[in-house]
Amino acid sequence: MAGFQEPPLKKAKSESFALHSAGASSQSPLKNNNGFGKNKWQNGSSPNQAGVKSPVKSPDQMKKILKQRHSLPIFPARSKLLEELKKSESVIVIGETGSGKTTQIPQYIHEERWDRKGAICITQPRRVAAISIAKRVAEEMDTQLGGLVGYSVRFEEAVSPSTKLKYVTDGMLLREAISDPLMSKYSWVILDEAHERTVSTDVLFGIVKDAQRSRKVQGKEPLKIIIMSATMDVDHFSTYFNKAPVLYLEGRQYPIEMFYARQKQEDYVMTCMSTIFQIHKEAPAQHDILVFLTGQEEIDSVVFSLKQIAKDPSLLEYPKLRVYPLYAALPSHQQLDVFRETAQGERKVIISTNIAETSITIPGIKYVVDSGRAKIRSYNASSGFDALKVKKISQAQAWQRTGRAGREAEGFCYRGYTQEEFKAMPINPVPEILRTNLASVILQLLAIGVKNVMNFDFIDKPSVDSVKQAIEQLALIGGVVTSPGLELTPAGRRMAQFPLEPRYAKTILSGPEYGCTDEILTIIAVLSSETIFVNPSGKKDLAAKVRQKFSSVEGDHITMLKIFRAFKSSKESKMWCHENFLNFRNISYAVEVRKQLVQVCQRCNIPIISCQQNLEPVRRCLVAGLFTSVAELQLDGKYLTLSTRQECAIHPASVLFGGKPAYVLFTELVHTGKAYMHINSAVDADWLYEVAPDYFRKRHMKK
């Protein structure tokens, strides 16, 4: 691995609070605050975030917590910050990573009793951040989690009628808005990590802004909005939120020393692994490392390799390595393992996706190793397929990752790319709303009561073609009618109750008609998880052979169903999963998702019927929701999608690979070099005509 070089960065400290006009230019949050000191090793405090409930603290513990709160850069600015919040309807707060904005601002509002007439809702893009921050704030306020402080994330919550500070994922607040567009439960909505620009966040900007305006027009209690981030295009946001003032919290808690690669690295994974052991041989025990990689399979592979290398006798003299993965598909309790304090004489190494980029503080992290990459999904409206590719991140994301190293003490960041590569990165990421299928967005907007979705107040408007295509997709599955105006159908209203893509919700709604709701719920729960298959390096052929007993000639969906049934028959045995090369964590996650989907079905009065061993109705039901995702075999042996005539192939991981069914229903079309149909079932032409005769007649299907 090429070595790292220290960039020519100046030392500067600043802990002031300044109010600038909306036109003030934004800058990368660490550029002027890089107080580096070479080889200064120091243990940082490690607040415990692992417990589910916050026990009552002793006076000494509370003094320590209060001291920590008062040491945050935001504390000297408390009075001026509150003054600005009091006089403005909407405020943008730019606070550097580690400044304390996420944990402290809601507490300041509560301490002033400005939440008497409504709670404070704080959004996070990711569930692990919402849960861990809620736990930390409950600890600081010396209260039980789920009481005064709570959280609500997909498939899990800890709230009560007495909850005043509620941390939620942006998707959950959006779902709340379906039944309460005015957000009447809240007097404050804080949209945190706004720079991430997830689809849900972008839609929330418009929904919250409209709720604020509507409450004002109706003479109701005002809704205050705070938009927060460490870095964003402030001019753009300020203009959108009616020229909201921009408050800069200057100064970070601890300096970070950065190193760049001396030359371009071809293998970013190997670069990261080499850097881990370079640090491991030099750093004291309990100085933990956070590494940013791209996806679950890559992370699991690196975790396995690190654990094997750590057993080498040459490393016995160094601290013991504890290696943890961190990604969205991990069950909550395993995600929270990373927050446990590191034992004496050990070092924690966390290999994470960009889930750890924002808001969360992982105790003990002194080093960040940044690959500079992330897996980014882009939807092509004209071809109808998703391209899931490893791409370089933006400068804003790089700064966020760097900030993870300076939360508790002076830190270090090793960037696995050159300074020239960093300068060539885009400043901000492309908003997800401009690169995703909008069917779910349109369905949610209509469910909330937005009549004219074409003119919805997006901060960045998606293309007209993308919106029209989404409406067409919803009309095809019976979710909307377009004449005389665009409206939800009764089925569309029920689809909106599910935290799923509309086509999956449609499939569940079709379950009773085909007598297989039970089986469809299982399949969709498994699809909601990451891959359930484990393919260890050097054992891929063995794994495939062992799992052969589950394979179905009908396709991957039925294979998944058979595996899930066998898992339940094994009494959800971890050992059984190990023996069959299956991912226990991901199947367990699917079990939890299924329970939640059953609850939604019960709320919507959808009968849960099973077809037992006759599984043909399952594939017919899948066609009812996914009929727009079908490809037809051509005379030359290739497949063309019926919707867009896109050339594609069966994915090598599919049980149908090597076969040539006349028609293949696929879950998604992923472009990795070429277009592959991923997770497939063989289907009959007659079924397709039964479900949508006009649709298939227009596409010149051979019959």
The low-confidence parts are 6-54
> What is the CA-atom radius of gyration, in angstroms?
26 Å
Q: Level of helix content? A: 25-40%
Number of domains: 3
What's the mean pLDDT score? Answer: 86
Oligomer: single chain
Strand order across the biggest sheet? Answer: 2-10-3-9-8-4-7-5-6
Helical run tally = 25
Q: What's the total number of strands?
A: 25
What coarse outline follows from CA principal-axis ratios?
globular
Main sheet properties? 9 strands, mixed
What class, by secondary structure content?
Answer: alpha/beta
**Fraction of residues in β-strands:** 15-25%
What gap, in angstroms, lies between the N and C termini?
Answer: 58 Å
Quick synopsis:
The chain is of the alpha/beta class. The chain contains 25 helices and 25 strands. It is globular, with a radius of gyration of 26 Å.
Give the topology, please.
Elements: E1 4-5, E2 17-20, H1 59-70, H2 78-87, E3 90-95, H3 101-111, E4 119-124, H4 127-140, E5 149-153, E6 156-158, E7 165-169, H5 170-179, E8 186-191, H6 199-217, E9 224-229, H7 234-240, E10 246-249, E11 256-261, H8 268-280, E12 288-292, H9 296-310, E13 320-326, H10 332-335, E14 346-352, E15 365-370, E16 373-380, E17 385-392, H11 395-403, E18 411-415, H12 419-424, H13 439-448, H14 464-476, E19 480-481, E20 487-488, H15 490-495, H16 502-509, H17 511-514, H18 517-527, H19 540-546, H20 556-569, H21 574-579, H22 584-603, H23 616-626, E21 630-633, E22 639-641, E23 647-650, E24 663-672, E25 674-682, H24 685-691, H25 693-698
